Amino acid sequence: MIEIQRIKENKSEVIEGLKKRGIDSEKEIDNILGIDQDWRISKTELEEISAQLNTISKEIGKLFSSGQRDQAEELKTKSVNLKKQEAAQKIKVDELQAQLSNRIMSLPNIPHPEVPNGRDEKDNEIVFETGERPNKENMKLAHWDLAKKHKLIDFELGVKVTGAGFPFYRGQGAKLQRALVSFFLDEAGRAGYEEFNSPLMVNEESGIGTGQLPDKEGMMYHVGNENLYLIPTAEVPLTNMYRNRIIPNADFSIKITGHTPCFRREAGSYGKDVRGLNRLHQFEKVEIVRIETPENAESALTEMIDHVKGLLEKLGLQYRILKLCAGDTGFAAAITYDFEVYSAGQDKWLEVSSVSRFDTFQSNRLKLRYKDENNKSRLCHTLNGSALALPRIVASLLENHQTPEGIKIPDALVPYTGFKMIT
């Protein structure tokens, strides 16, 4: 959530930042500032009424003590009327506060100055690319054909038991999935991330805290009776561990990781882009999350990008990094770098990770602060990234490492799988 102080002090900057996303917000920003002014005036009036009541209450006690009952009764009548005014004023203040929060909450984050202009994925900027594309003639089969040939993944059984987008992994396919999770978690541990095993459902307040609600409720599975949401990513429970927290000093760098299934409705997805493992409703992912001071956020982002690079290089996959344009950057992010792996069997690039800075957007919702060197309370900066999401990694491993003899397992994974080849 954009800080109201930022809107008040840098109105034109906020409007221009949102315009970069293709949003004409000038009228809405004026409405927000008007509501904020009304709220402040109403709150001052409420405080004045409460102060009068406090003064009168003390005076009534003195009058009764000195035997001046008639004067005390007159003040009691006045006090009753003031309490009615106070109650009505409190309702007004709360309503204005709710209006203000709802309007600000509907605004996405302001893009970082480095974010390129653009409307959609066609305008994203390739900032890094490494490795060579496998020879398409030698990599003829797509992962869904390889999965069927080697009995690794059963898509039809998933449709029977649950529906499209919920595959069964079996045999060496299940072991490969488990090996990747362990490999990613061990690599995160070696990089200093503390591992957590989190709940798979969160409450509404947690969804609001990280920006999934109210923006993305259509993408989340909702458990109606309990008003809980199945998590779309471990980012939600991991970051919300620090909701309503004040870190006591500025000497911190919080690094946490977790593996969870992720659940996404993916409404409107159809066609070839959802075939096989390309887009699932349930999939596994290892997430890394950082909570930092504003001064450390940039270096933390670089470290996270380097961490994901290292994983892909150890898996022997060609990849590229894209800096997302403003129109393609997620609702809560200030800047996002997507990692894409080349899929030989499909002859296309597949997104396997997003690494994002949110600056104070999430921490403002979370009420996550720290005390600086002057003991002043300041908002933390939050970051997160996939390290990594499994379905498209599995797809790329199967397609890019296929040989006439079978599918070769990268050396870094062999200690986890227990086999060197899928045959």
Layout: helices, strands, pairs:
Blueprint: H1 4-9, H2 11-20, H3 26-65, H4 69-105, E1 125-130, H5 143-149, E2 153-154, H6 155-161, E3 168-169, H7 171-190, E4 194-196, E5 201-203, H8 204-210, E6 222-223, E7 228-230, H9 235-240, E8 246-247, E9 254-263, E10 282-292, H10 297-314, E11 319-323, E12 335-343, E13 348-359, H11 361-366, E14 369-371, E15 377-379, E16 381-389, H12 390-400, E17 402-403, E18 406-408, H13 414-417, E19 421-422
Parallel strand pairs: 4-9, 8-14
Antiparallel strand pairs: 1-11, 2-3, 5-7, 6-7, 9-10, 10-16, 11-12, 12-13, 13-16, 14-15, 17-18, 18-19
Helix pairs in contact: 3-4, 5-12
Question: How would you describe this structure to a colleague?
Answer:
By secondary structure, the chain is of the alpha+beta class. Helices cover 42% and strands 22% of the residues. It has helices at residues 4-9, 11-20, 26-65, 69-105, 143-149, 155-161, 171-190, 204-210, 235-240, 297-314, 361-366, 390-400, 414-417; strands spanning 125-130, 153-154, 168-169, 194-196, 201-203, 222-223, 228-230, 246-247, 254-263, 282-292, 319-323, 335-343, 348-359, 369-371, 377-379, 381-389, 402-403, 406-408, 421-422. Strands 1-11-12-13-16-10-9-4 form an 8-stranded mixed beta sheet. Strands 5-7-6 form a 3-stranded antiparallel beta sheet. It has a 3-stranded mixed beta sheet with strand order 8-14-15, with no helix packed on it. It is elongated. The two termini are 51 Å apart. The mean pLDDT is 94.
How do the strands line up in the largest sheet?
1-11-12-13-16-10-9-4
The beta-strand count equals 19
What share of residues are in beta strands? 15-25%
Q: What is the helix fraction of residues, given as a range?
A: 40-55%
Taken from the alpha-carbon principal axes, the silhouette is elongated
How large is the radius of gyration?
27 Å
Low-confidence stretches: none
User: Can you give the mean pLDDT?
Assistant: 94
Structural class: alpha+beta
With helices defined by DSSP (H or I, 4 residues minimum), what is the helix count?
Answer: 13
Give the end-to-end Cα distance, rounded to a whole number of Å.
51 Å
Largest sheet: 8 strands, mixed
